[in-house]
């Protein structure tokens, strides 16, 4: 039978997957290289590493749960770096990499139990990806040969 702690962890992973899915849906809809599954996996992975970090530190006064969490950031940086490409004079994948980085942070927030913060951050990320896209297009409108990445 599942104990309350395990049920809580399952809830956390499910919430992280859902929030990652929301951001991933936007990227998938735009036809970006990292989409629905990638963003969900990043959010779930970040949440799982964070949960394991927090739970494994119980009763160990010398254990620092931030050590595992900090390595999540390093790992996401590595993945994000692989998405950024320079094609001629055009930079591609920067917004996708930043979105993965932010989604990992959302997953970590869920893993640490900051649910309202994670939900709000997801809404903010979606605002940046949707609404500010139109602002960017407006700014670049009329500029001949304007290259803007990953909008």
How would you characterize the overall build of this protein?
The chain is mainly α. The chain has one domain (4-140). The protein has a two-stranded antiparallel ribbon with strand order 1-2. Helices cover 72% and strands 4% of the residues. 31% of the residues are buried. The longest helix has 26 residues, at 4-29.
Give structural attributes:
cell membrane; 151 residues; mainly alpha; two-stranded antiparallel ribbon; 72% helix
Describe the secondary-structure layout.
Layout: H1 4-29, H2 36-56, H3 66-83, E1 85-87, E2 90-92, H4 94-111, H5 115-140
Antiparallel strand pairs: 1-2
Helix pairs in contact: 1-2, 1-4, 1-5, 2-3, 2-4, 3-4, 4-5
Provide a short characterization of the protein structure.
The protein is mainly alpha-helical and 151 residues long. It has one domain. It contains five helices and two strands; from the N terminus they run H-H-H-E-E-H-H.
């Amino acid at each position: 039978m599942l104990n309350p702690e395990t049920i809580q962890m399952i809830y956390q992973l499910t919430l992280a997957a859902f929030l990652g899915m929301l951001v991933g849906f936007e990227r998938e809809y735009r036809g970006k290289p990292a989409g629905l599954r990638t963003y969900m996996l990043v959010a779930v992975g970040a949440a799982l590493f964070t949960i394991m970090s927090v739970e494994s530190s119980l009763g160990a006064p010398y254990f620092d749960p931030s050590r595992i969490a900090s390595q999540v950031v390093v790992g996401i940086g590595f993945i994000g770096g692989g998405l950024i490409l320079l094609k001629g004079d055009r930079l591609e994948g920067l917004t996708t990499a930043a979105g993965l980085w932010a989604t990992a942070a959302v997953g970590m927030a869920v893993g640490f139990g900051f649910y309202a913060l994670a939900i709000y951050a997801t809404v903010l990320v979606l605002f940046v990806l949707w609404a500010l896209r139109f602002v960017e297009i407006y700014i670049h409108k009329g500029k001949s040969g304007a290259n803007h990445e990953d909008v």
